[in-house]
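Quick look at the format.
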Amino acid sequence: MRTLPSVMRSLRFRLPVFFLLGIVLGGFVASAIALRLFQGYTRERSFDELRREASGIAQLYANAALRAVDEGADAPDFAPDAFERATGDRLFYVGAPAFPGQDSGLRSLGESSIPESVIALGEVATFELRAPGDARTYLAVAEPLRLEPDAEPLGAIVVAKPEAVLRDQWLPLAKRLVVAFLVGSVLAGILGWRLSRRITRPVLALARASDEIAAGNYAFRVPETARDDEIRLLSERFNEMAARLGATEERERQFLMSVSHELRTPLTAIKGHIDALRDGLVDDPELVAVSLDVVANEALRLERLVGDVLDLAKLRAHRFTVHSEEVDMGRLAELAYGAFGDEARRREINFRLDLADDPPTISTDGDRVLQIVTNLLTNAFHWTPDGGSISLALRSAGTSIRVEVADSGPGVNPTQRERIFNPFVSGDTQGTGLGLPIARELANALGGFVEVVASDGPGSVFRLVLPLRSPAKRAGAAGVSSTTPSLTSR
């Protein structure tokens, strides 16, 4: 059973928590910004409304004052109480009375209650106001009062709105935002939990599959899903990896069996002849010489087998040194051809050499090219029956040179044309399956490649393609030595 701390550290728990925290933080910031913007909007809208009211009352007051002076009438009664009941605002007057000795009904404020710019400069001002005898805060607008457009202001009309009215406007919005925020958080939590389940379920399946693979169960596969996303891609790649690991293990098993057989055969022969010589069972000088020849040949066979394994390991680890030298490809083909002449005559194989009219000289590693051609020929002789035919051809093709080895063996199945270049893949138990992989790796290291050419008839054709870089000065087979062909099989 998983403990609470381990559950809290799991991706299934942390993913919805972080998702929810992100939603909560984003919702809080968005709500705060929205509320702040709404407060600013309502405040500015209230000031605009107060400006219109103050401007209209000031104009009305100035016009009534002028008519009263012209006609000798009483000061107009603006009934501020009725105005305040109708609008919810308060009405004040600051400054000298426009009707000396007469009362217009407006409440008076001291000039210290409004900005100095209203009376001194005749400007409209917005400010916060504390009315006498009232503890509330008001938003106020002061409009200068002029009897003539260019005359000095006599005072100012002040229209004020309680600030609590604004709070009454945005408080319902705040409540709605809180409700929406809570509902959104719950929905986000549910969505995050479902999302985490959707993501972590295949991840946990991959973890279980990894445990199975680590335990050696390479046949285990992650169930395929109908999803078309990264998780499906990861599952497919994991299954491909498992299949390749299984194939690799199978190849290694086959390799061990093949190598065991290849090692056991010469070791058995060597041990048998040595025991016979040690026990004195063979005393004829000619038989002793034969036994020593067998021991030497079998030891050389073991050396080649170990060399193939080491060469492939170095090539795969990119620790293989390639030398550059001028190589006469015609001379190299003749060396490879001559190395298999005796076996061709012994097995009555029709072995032909087909060279171009003017074999080129290229800059490459002659020993490695000869090793590639030797491996291809060894493969051809291994699969060609006695009395068959093998050809070694050299051709120039544009900026490359081609070496083709054709045989009359059973051929290569089209589905196996790439697989035979994998290490340890052998068509029988007589080889280790290293010759062709080594040939391909060497060709890649030299800037070329080895391929199987499709053939209409029986047999197979292997082609080595190398870049053609003709030097200015022709040379012989520099650095090329006739090494003994490697053991190989298809």
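Next, a different chain entirely:
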Amino acid sequence: MSHTLKIRAFFFNAKTDYLPYYKNFTLTLADDAVAKNILVAVQAQNENFTYPELNLVFKINDLMVEEDTPVTSIVQKLGTTLKIDPANSYRSNNGLIINNDDFMKSYDLLAPYATESDKKYYKTLYALHYASETENFDREYIGDAILVLAHKMISEGNEHKTEILSAITSAHSGLLDCEYENNLFNPQHHTAAITALKDMVKNDDNEHPSLLDMIKERFSKKGATSAAVKEVKRNSITIDGLGEKQLAYYAGNSNNVPMYQLLEESDIATVNFSRVHKLSGLSIVEDNKTLAYKKAGATLLEAFDAGAEVVVIEDNATYDMMQNNFSAIENTIGRKMIGLELITSEDFVAQLATISA
């Protein structure tokens, strides 16, 4: 058995090109092929296509894959039409070869407190570093990998706990900007570690007063306020002419199978968009309002540009954040989403029942 793939591959040479571009290829690979074989086959058809020999990780359809990922698994998950990009397009020097100095620059934050064993472990997190979702919104983000290392070091009893927390929190874009999710092909779940780090910083008043002062300073600089996410007592929402409007369902980190079934069985037109399961800033709005609004705006704007007139939002708190700050979100992303309406999933289900009755 073999796989026939349609590939759209990234090209860029910093010495000769002003902007990156893509070229299309058709490949046939054996059933036992791995991700690196895709790159080898593309290069065989075009010698200008380049990729690193060491630390080979790259994106397929915006998910980070490692060189030994089976093509069979890739096809099962993503299909046979694939887009190939560098681990970080902005850092590309030549095709998939990137300037990866930022990886060890992040490590330098903890290097004074780390052992050789810590450094060795950090190097295993190379793919995780470049799969950080936060980096898509702030290129100066230190990466998820260094936060995972920090949690490991503290959990193992490193005596420099205060210094470690200070280093990852005082960075221009660090711990408090992380709403953990990553774009790894094979997901890694580090939400608990990131949450634990934030709890250490925010709740240990006696041990870390300087950290608390630093957080207050961040609040002042970024204008964050707890009012941005406070629960509000709301009336039921209804959308005029709901049955005639195009709808997008934003699930966030939930997997509401009955909702998908309901939408499939209804007569309402729906649109698909890639951020349906991405987080949208709720957990970081108190620490970095601007970044949270960028993430919320990216979600709503993608649904809007896909043709949605109504966005059904699964989580009530996320709905409150988006609805209460809709104008601020528009201003942050620099786009008006005229006519876009938001509704909670529970209110949508209730209204749909009256339409169907």
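Residues 4 and 28 are 4 Å apart (CA to CA).

See the schema section for token definitions.
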